[in-house]
Amino acid sequence: MTCEIWRDQIGAYIDGELAAGHDEEVTRHLKQCGECTLFAAGEVHLKRGIAQAGRKFQAPVELRENVLRSVGSSRRVSLMWAMITATAVVVLLVALFALRPRPDVSREISDLHLSTIASPNPVDVVSTDMHTVKPWFQGKVPFTFNLPELNGSPFTLIGGRMVYVRQTPMALLLFQYKLHKISVLIGPEDVLSGSKDPGHGFHEVNWAKNGYRYVTIGDASVDALHDLSERMRAVAE
């Protein structure tokens, strides 16, 4: 299959409309094709932007007054019905986008990790030194965190970047484990709580402390994710 054929199916894949076997085929392709992964990430952001715009739409308060004033005027009946019809169409379209199933936080985190590891520039601050990465986040996120000493461990810090989940600023730390990349997402517990099944073939381990949740996600083994999570937990403030 060419990438064009895969991309014709990405919209249904994002919405969870593909059969299980076909969904797995697309997942495997995305892991192997950086261009399609970036395309999928763009589609996710586009769908979220449209849905958010739809939820913000409100018909003008003046609409009712204009319609009522128009009722008594035979010369404006056609205009009135045209306005009502046009408004009804807009409201219907907005409702269709707003009522589409919103990806749960698990899928949003999964999409974020997928777009990160597929990017040619996955982090904003590139460093294996925790004393460089941690201060970079000061003033960018409304919290602080500690990083474990990884010398002699199977993990290497790649760097970090600031990201948004549900319009909330968060810290994403990227680690290397053998041939795998693992993300640790740190953000408010009330936003990240409920994350369980990330999809895309990834595993996830998460825990919370002092009102913040730490979500470790990647395609490495669950044991490896637990290992890194415990190292983060041991130094958490």
Defining key terms:
single chain; 237 residues; alpha+beta; 6-stranded antiparallel beta sheet; 9 helices; 19% strand
Question: Could you explain how this protein is built, in words?
Answer:
With 237 residues, the protein is of the alpha+beta class. The protein has helices at residues 3-14, 20-32, 34-56, 62-71, 77-98, 105-118, 130-136, 189-192, 222-235; strands spanning 125-126, 155-165, 168-177, 180-188, 203-209, 212-218. The chain has a 6-stranded antiparallel sheet with strand order 1-2-3-4-6-5, sandwiched between helices.
SSE topology sketch:
Blueprint: H1 3-14, H2 20-32, H3 34-56, H4 62-71, H5 77-98, H6 105-118, E1 125-126, H7 130-136, E2 155-165, E3 168-177, E4 180-188, H8 189-192, E5 203-209, E6 212-218, H9 222-235
Antiparallel strand pairs: 1-2, 2-3, 3-4, 4-6, 5-6
Helix pairs in contact: 1-3, 2-3, 3-5, 3-6, 4-5
Unreliable stretches: 88-102
Question: How would you state the average pLDDT, rounded?
Answer: 80
Radius of gyration over all CA atoms, rounded: 23 Å
| Largest sheet data | 6 strands, antiparallel
Coarse morphology: globular
Query: Distance N terminus to C terminus?
Result: 49 Å
**Strand order in space, largest sheet:** 1-2-3-4-6-5
How would you spell out the order of helices and strands? HHHHHHEHEEEHEEH
Number of strands: 6
What structural class should be given to the helix and strand makeup?
A: alpha+beta
* Content of β-strand: 15-25%
Q: Indicate the percent of residues in helices.
A: 40-55%
> What is the helix tally?
9
